[in-house]
Q: What sequence folds into this?
């Protein structure tokens, strides 16, 4: 990775025809959730380990510096930014003014496209009506709250600190502040969760009135506190059949409430409610990821930043790119990634992307009821509901 972050000319060729988004990573959390393996840090984890450089107090300025670096690297790129997504961690541990400064740097350096989608994630306990009003004034128009569950005993297993009912209240507060689009994130398959618990969480989420719901199966990652608890036999592991049942419950409940799936784990009440930023990822567009451990992709070049906030701050302070490494994707790798990502979308992926073995697998998937017949006849591979339950297996077959 060159110290100035320069990209090969091939990455910038034709850039004006591709959408551009920004992901801003905020790596701070008040506490560590037992299931989380994201690149996040609590105050105690940073103390004595680059803690001064990695302070939350000066973090916004570091991200601003990387946005300015992005402007230099992308040069005379004429594109205005279409989506901005601030994720974490808990972005709302920073002052709303800090998030506004980060967004302001993108506006100043690149400009925001008309109708740009500007999202931040938020922990329900880290915001209040005044904070939300400040975010809206700064230019944020979409917000995603981590709800996970409506049941206290489920939240406890996940080590979530918010109280049941607070995420639903946040939706009302966000609407009052002027947010046009609100998402609630849910997790199913937590050890000790019942079908009734999951139904209650879905009903509570719907009752709050979001226009977008994300529902993810709990993945127990090695190295997390939850993985250690399961290994010690303190909590049971949830099996794949339970995950499948919970997904079917989600589809049934959300569909009945007027939500439509547009990606395997995401539902919206209208096309306008979709997360356009995530659609950039799924469609292989260009995005710049700023912050420790953030990943970026521009024109077939993918790179990632150093993970530790102290190392990130030091690189920028020395006028260097915080990039830790990068790879130039081959045409074959990009083909495979398109299948992996686009098959998860309601629009599916073009059958013309498939090699002969993959095409034969698609024909078998059609016979087995895993692909929709009508889109298949138009040259698109689109998953049926049963296909969504087996999406990973279908993808493996289609990529040869």
A:
């Amino acid at each position: 990775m060159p110290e100035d972050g320069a990209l090969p000319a091939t990455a910038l060729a034709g850039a004006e025809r591709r959408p551009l988004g920004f992901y801003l990573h905020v790596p701070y959390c008040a506490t560590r959730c037992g299931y989380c393996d994201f690149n996040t840090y609590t105050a105690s984890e940073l103390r004595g380990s680059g803690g001064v450089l990695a302070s939350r107090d000066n973090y916004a300025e570091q991200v601003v510096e990387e946005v300015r670096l992005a402007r230099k690297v992308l040069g005379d790129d004429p594109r205005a930014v279409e989506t901005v997504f601030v994720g974490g961690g808990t972005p709302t541990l920073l002052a709303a003014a800090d998030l506004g400064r980060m967004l302001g740097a993108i506006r100043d350096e690149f400009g925001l496209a008309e109708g740009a989608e500007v999202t931040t994630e938020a922990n329900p306990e880290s915001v209040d009506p005044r904070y939300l009003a400040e975010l809206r004034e700064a230019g944020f128009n979409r917000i995603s709250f981590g709800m996970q569950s409506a049941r206290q005993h489920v939240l406890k297993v996940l080590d979530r600190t918010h109280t049941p009912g607070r995420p639903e209240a946040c939706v009302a507060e966000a609407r009052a502040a002027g947010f046009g689009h609100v998402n609630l994130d849910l997790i199913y398959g937590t050890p000790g969760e019942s079908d009734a618990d999951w139904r209650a969480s879905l009903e509570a989420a719907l009752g709050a009135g979001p226009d977008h719901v994300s529902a993810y199966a709990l993945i127990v990652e090695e190295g997390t506190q939850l993985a250690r608890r399961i290994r010690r036999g303190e909590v049971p592991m949830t099996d794949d059949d339970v995950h499948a049942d919970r997904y079917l419950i989600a589809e049934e409940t959300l569909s009945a409430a007027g939500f439509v799936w547009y990606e395997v784990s995401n539902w919206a009440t209208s096309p306008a409610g979709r997360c356009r930023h995530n659609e950039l990822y799924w469609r292989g567009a260009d995005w710049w990821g700023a912050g420790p451990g953030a990943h970026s992709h521009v024109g077939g070049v993918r790179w990632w930043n150093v993970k530790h906030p102290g190392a990130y701050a030091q690189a920028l302070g020395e006028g260097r790119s915080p990039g830790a490494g990068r790879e130039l994707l081959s045409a074959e790798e990009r083909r495979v990634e398109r299948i992996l990502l686009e098959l998860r979308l309601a629009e599916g992926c073009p059958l013309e992307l498939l090699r002969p073995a993959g095409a034969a697998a698609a024909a078998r998937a059609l016979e087995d009821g895993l692909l929709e017949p009508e889109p298949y006849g138009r040259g698109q591979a689109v998953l049926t509901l049963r296909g969504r339950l087996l999406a990973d297996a279908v993808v493996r077959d289609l990529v040869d």
Remarks:
- The CA atoms of residues 80 and 175 lie 27 Å apart.
